[in-house]
């Protein structure tokens, strides 16, 4: 691959600095919107990869259905890239963090209960679960031909109302975050997947989601060094992650420079476009030698303020190596947009807006990273598939999944009541934000004792009068709540905002519905169990109504052969049944 650096044209170097998504694609040029998932590489996109020398593809859940299909897709993408003039493999990346942000198909893979659960188990198990999950996630990705994971998240969740990080963070303690991140990076990279620390310089102290706006962090430089930047400083002393991803945030204490938007306004430069933050601090002060990649450039924190070309030029001028999702290609007619973008960036280099020597140095870093990528042998496809089927969701990984969920489970209130509150002669009522969560908990309880009498309420859809009738008959109520609401990153990205907005009203109603129902239930002397299913900050709003309160950190549910199951709900059932003594400790400060 090394000879690619001597023969590459400027345009080819620029193409290598781009990662696109092919999440949706269709050949119908007359359609207004495309929501057709791409699961097989069409000829038009194969030719685009070959002719442009494109650097990488980021894959989403819609692209990844089952092991055989995924292997066919990733292999065909790599074979197309190897047929380009440079013959360089693609970065094939995903956001597969575990917890709420996963991309592999739930039914066959292992997603674990996420970073905050690892933080909850930290006081007893140190970085054991970070190592175990990092290794398992990498093995399941690598065997499918995916070579980059945009994980782990090293944001320090300092704002309890953070809409986008929350349970994706290990902790609100930067030292804990650093240690767990180092362990995950080491394991991922030892097992064939390039890791990504994100979101630099820190997205933890904000109540705005950069998918929908441009957050501003108001820490002083001293506080920034002690909190947001500390995990990066500590990590880079121990490991060199293949990639570090930028945050679409303003951080005036680190760079208060003004930049012109597409509308002619002057705003504080986003970190993604800040040379002081990326080149001067990350590259020079912290001596980072790997690849600096952007978060998705179609997010509102960037796209509301800059044109596609302007955004990429600003990022490359700041020292970014790879621009992620700078344009959307959804139909054949969009293909030319890539060449237009590359041409515009090349013009910016030739006119001096971007330093050409830095483009070449960046290209060299990309080649060094790609020298580690193994291209699958087309004659060994069946062997690869057999190996994938033996690794994905294997017994060992499932055991880690349930062990983490149990060790993370945290009792906030009512320790003495746990293990004694369930009785096969008493009526149990489960109230969950979505029906599938109720199904998973019910299934887990019945697996422990088939004589339990269980009814359920779907908080999004059940009428108040029906719910109250069920409460009247209940001896034990198990209620779950999710805070904060779902973010676009959980579904995939900015294209999911419409879906989220449509469900937001229901989610708000379900929260108020739960509050009203628990107030109704409290005087009836039922035993009330409250389960916080994401960040535990919401417990303070329900604690007075609950006899027992748990922090669970996750609500992942998978459908396996028409049976709903989830490690968190299995752990909760085992604790209430008395089989498991919860030992987790909240990794974030509660009231």
Relative strand content: 5-15%
Most strands sheet: 6 strands, mixed
CATH homologous superfamily annotation of the domain at 408-577: Glycoside hydrolase family 3 C-terminal domain
Q: Class of the domain at 408-577 in CATH?
A: Alpha Beta
Number of helices: 23
Element layout with pairings:
Blueprint: H1 4-7, H2 10-16, E1 18-21, H3 43-52, E2 56-58, H4 67-82, E3 91-94, H5 115-120, H6 122-125, H7 128-142, E4 148-149, H8 174-190, E5 196-200, H9 221-226, H10 230-238, E6 243-246, E7 258-260, E8 266-268, H11 275-285, E9 291-293, H12 300-303, H13 308-318, E10 323-324, H14 335-350, H15 356-370, H16 381-391, H17 395-408, E11 410-413, E12 427-432, H18 435-448, E13 453-458, H19 464-472, E14 476-481, H20 488-491, H21 497-521, E15 527-532, H22 539-542, E16 548-551, E17 558-560, E18 563-565, H23 567-577
Helix pairs in contact: 2-14, 2-15, 3-4, 4-16, 7-8, 7-17, 8-10, 13-14, 17-23, 18-23, 19-21
Provide a descriptive summary of the structure in words.
The protein is an alpha/beta fold and 591 residues long. It has a domain at 408-577: Rossmann fold (3-Layer(aba) Sandwich), CATH 3.40.50.1700. Helix content is 41%, strand content 12%. The protein is built from 23 helices and 18 strands. It has a 6-stranded mixed β-sheet with strand order 11-16-15-14-12-13, with helices on both faces. α4 links the parallel β2 and β3 (91-94). α4 (67-82) packs across α16 (381-391) and α13 (308-318) packs across α14. The termini are far apart.
């Amino acid at each position: 691959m090394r000879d690619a650096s001597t023969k590459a044209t400027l345009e080819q170097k620029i193409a290598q600095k781009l990662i696109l998504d092919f999440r949706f694609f269709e050949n119908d040029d007359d359609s207004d919107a495309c929501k057709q998932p791409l699961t097989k590489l069409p000829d038009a996109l194969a030719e685009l990869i070959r002719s442009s020398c494109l650097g990488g593809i980021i894959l989403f859940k819609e692209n990844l259905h089952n092991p055989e299909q995924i292997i066919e897709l990733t292999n065909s993408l790599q074979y197309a890239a190897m047929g380009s003039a440079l013959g360089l493999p693609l970065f094939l990346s995903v956001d597969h963090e575990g917890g709420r942000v996963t991309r592999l198909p739930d039914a066959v893979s292992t997603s674990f209960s996420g970073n905050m659960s690892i933080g909850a188990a930290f006081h007893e198990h140190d970085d054991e679960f970070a190592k175990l999950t990092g290794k398992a996630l990498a093995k399941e990705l690598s065997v499918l031909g995916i070579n980059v994971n945009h994980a782990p998240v090293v944001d320090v969740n300092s704002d309890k109302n953070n809409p986008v990080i929350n349970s994706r963070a290990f902790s609100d303690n930067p030292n804990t975050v650093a240690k767990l991140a180092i362990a995950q990076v080491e394991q991922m990279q030892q097992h064939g997947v390039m890791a990504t620390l994100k979101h630099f310089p820190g997205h933890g102290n904000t109540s705005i989601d950069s998918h929908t706006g441009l957050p501003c962090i108001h820490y002083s430089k001293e506080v920034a060094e002690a909190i947001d930047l500390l995990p990066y400083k500590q990590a880079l002393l121990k490991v060199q992650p293949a990639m570090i991803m930028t945050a679409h945030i303003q951080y005036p204490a680190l760079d208060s420079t003004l930049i012109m938007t597409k509308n002619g306004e002057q705003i504080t430069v986003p970190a993604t476009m800040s040379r002081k933050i990326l080149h001067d601090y990350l590259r020079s002060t912290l001596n980072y030698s790997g690849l600096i990649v952007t978060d998705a450039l179609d997010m509102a924190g960037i796209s509301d303020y800059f044109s596609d070309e302007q955004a990429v030029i600003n990022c490359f001028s700041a020292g970014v190596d790879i621009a992620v999702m700078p344009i959307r290609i959804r139909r054949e007619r969009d293909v030319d947009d890539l060449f237009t973008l590359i041409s515009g960036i090349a013009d910016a280099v030739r006119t001096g807006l971007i330093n050409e020597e830095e483009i070449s140095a960046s290209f060299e870093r990309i080649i060094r990273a790609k020298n580690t990528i193994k291209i699958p042998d087309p004659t060994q496809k069946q062997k690869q598939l057999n190996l994938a089927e033996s690794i994905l969701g294997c017994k060992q990984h499932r055991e880690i999944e349930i062990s983490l969920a149990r060790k993370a489970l945290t009792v906030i209130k009512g320790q003495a009541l746990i293990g004694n509150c369930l009785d096969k002669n008493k009526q149990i009522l489960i109230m969950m934000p979505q029906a599938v969560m109720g199904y998973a908990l019910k299934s887990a309880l019945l697996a422990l004792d088939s004589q339990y009498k269980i009814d359920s309420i779907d908080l999004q859809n059940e009428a108040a009068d029906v719910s109250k009738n069920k409460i009247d008959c209940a001896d034990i109520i198990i209620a779950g709540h999710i805070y904060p609401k779902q973010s676009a990153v959980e579904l995939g990205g900015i294209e999911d905002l419409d879906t989220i907005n449509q469900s937001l009203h229901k989610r708000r109603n379900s929260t108020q519905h739960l509050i009203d129902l628990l107030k109704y239930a409290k005087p009836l002397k039922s035993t009330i169990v409250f389960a916080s299913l994401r960040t535990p900050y919401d417990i303070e709003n329900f604690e007075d109504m609950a006899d027992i309160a748990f922090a669970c950190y996750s609500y992942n549910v998978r459908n396996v052969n028409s049976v709903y199951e989830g490690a968190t709900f299995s752990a909760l059932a085992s604790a209430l049944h008395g089989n498991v003594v919860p030992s987790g400790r909240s990794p974030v400060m509660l009231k």
